[in-house]
C-alpha cells in the first residue's frame, strides 16, 4: 500500500488563486495589503524563506516591504525597524524571520498584535487560549488546512502531536482542541515514557520534533494521516545536504496519507502567512469603515 500524498504545493496554488480575488476586492476599496519582513544576518536558509514569501506576495498582489539587516545587528537596531513597521500604514502585517540570534521574546512582543501575521505575539497566543478570534500561527494553521483540503476527518480523531515547541506543537494542540476542530490531542515530548505507544493510538500524527526519522513504521496505526513538520538538514551518503523529516521514509507503507517533506507543510505555512496578511488588511478596512460611520 502506498499512502496518499498530502501535497501542500498544490493547495498553496489554490489558496493563492482565492486570495488574489480578495486582494482585488480590497483594491476596489483603495487598500493594497503589504507584507513586511525583517531578516537579520546572512543564513542561506532564512534568505530562501524570505525570498519565497515575497515571490508569493507578488503573485497574489500583496506589496512587499523588505528590511534586511546585517549579521551582528543589535536588539535595539531590530526593534527600531519593528517600530518603524508598526507605524507604517503601507505595512498591513509583518514578521521578523527567526532565528535572529537575539531575544526572540523581546522582538515578538514589540510587534503590533494587529500586524502580527505570524500569530506568535503573546497577546494573540493568549487570545487563542481564550478562544477569541485573532491572528493564528501559520504552520499550525497550515497543518489543519492541509487535513481539511484532503478531507481527513479531524472531529473526534485521536491526534498525537510530537513536539511542544512554541511555533508548532503547542499552538497546534490548542487549535485542534477548539470546538471547531474537536480533536482529542496528546502532546508527546522528550519526557514521554513510551512514544511508540502514544503514536500507535493516533488517527493523525504530527511530527514536529525536528528529530530526523524519529517516528518509524512500527509506530503507525494502519491508515493513519501523517504530517511531517520536522525540517532537519542532513548530509546523505552522496555528500549532499537534504531535508529530513521526523518520519522514517518507510511510513508510507503503513499510513493512509502522508505529507511529503519538502512539498507538504512548508508551502502550507506560506499559504497561511498570505492568508493572515489579507485578513489583517480586511480587518483594518473594517475598522476604518466603522470609524468613518
Ligand atoms: N518569523 C518566522 N515565521 C516563520 O513562519 C518562519 C520563521 N520565522 N523561521 C523559519 C520557519 C520555517 N518556515 C518555512 C517556510 C516555508 C517553507 C517551505 O516552503 N519549504 C519548501 C522548500 C523546502 C526546501 O527545499 O528547503 C517545502 O517544504 O517544500 C519551509 C519552512 C517558516 N518559518
TrEMBL record:
List of residues binding NADP(+): 163-165, 231
CDD domains, alphabetized: NAD_bind_m-THF_DH_Cyclohyd (cd01080)
EC number(s) reported in the record: 1.5.1.5, 3.5.4.9
A GO MF term: methylenetetrahydrofolate dehydrogenase (NADP+) activity
Gene Ontology biological process terms, A to Z: L-histidine biosynthetic process; methionine biosynthetic process; purine nucleotide biosynthetic process; tetrahydrofolate interconversion
Catalytic activity: (6R)-5,10-methylene-5,6,7,8-tetrahydrofolate + NADP(+) = (6R)-5,10-methenyltetrahydrofolate + NADPH; (6R)-5,10-methenyltetrahydrofolate + H2O = (6R)-10-formyltetrahydrofolate + H(+)
Top-rank taxon, per record: Bacteria
Subunit note: Homodimer.
Name of the protein in question: Bifunctional protein FolD
Organism listed in the record: Nostocoides japonicum T1-X7
Lineage: Bacteria, Bacillati, Actinomycetota, Actinomycetes, Micrococcales
Amino acid at each position: 500500500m502506498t499512502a496518499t500524498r498530502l501535497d501542500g504545493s498544490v493547495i498553496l496554488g489554490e489558496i493563492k488563486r482565492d486570495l488574489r480575488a480578495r486582494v482585488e476586492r480590497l483594491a476596489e476599496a483603495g487598500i493594497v495589503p503589504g507584507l513586511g519582513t525583517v531578516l537579520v544576518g546572512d543564513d542561506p536558509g532564512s534568505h530562501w524563506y524570505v525570498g519565497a514569501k515575497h515571490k508569493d506576495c507578488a503573485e497574489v498582489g500583496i506589496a512587499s516591504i523588505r528590511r534586511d539587516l546585517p549579521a551582528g545587528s543589535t536588539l535595539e537596531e531590530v526593534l527600531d525597524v519593528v517600530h518603524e513597521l508598526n507605524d507604517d500604514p503601507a505595512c498591513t502585517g509583518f514578521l521578523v524571520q527567526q532565528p535572529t540570534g537575539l531575544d526572540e521574546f523581546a522582538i515578538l512582543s514589540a510587534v503590533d498584535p494587529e500586524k502580527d501575521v505570524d500569530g506568535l505575539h503573546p497577546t494573540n497566543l493568549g487570545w487563542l487560549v481564550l478562544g477569541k478570534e485573532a491572528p493564528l500561527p501559520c504552520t499550525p494553521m497550515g497543518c489543519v488546512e492541509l487535513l481539511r483540503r484532503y478531507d481527513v476527518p479531524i472531529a473526534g480523531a485521536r491526534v498525537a502531536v510530537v513536539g511542544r515547541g512554541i511555533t508548532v506543537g503547542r499552538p497546534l494542540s490548542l487549535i485542534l482542541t477548539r470546538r471547531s476542530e474537536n480533536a482529542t490531542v496528546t502532546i508527546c515530548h522528550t519526557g514521554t515514557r513510551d512514544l511508540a505507544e502514544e503514536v500507535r493510538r493516533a488517527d493523525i500524527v504530527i511530527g514536529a520534533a525536528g528529530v530526523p526519522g524519529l517516528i518509524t513504521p512500527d509506530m503507525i496505526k494502519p491508515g493513519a494521516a501523517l504530517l511531517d513538520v520536522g525540517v532537519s538538514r542532513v548530509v546523505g551518503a552522496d555528500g549532499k545536504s537534504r531535508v529530513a523529516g521526523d518520519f522514517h521514509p518507510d511510513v508510507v507503507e503503513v499510513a493512509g496519507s502522508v505529507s511529503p517533506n519538502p512539498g507538504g507543510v512548508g508551502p502550507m505555512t506560506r499559504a497561511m502567512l498570505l492568508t493572515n496578511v489579507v485578513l489583517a488588511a480586511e480587518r483594518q478596512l473594517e475598522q476604518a469603515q466603522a470609524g468613518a460611520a
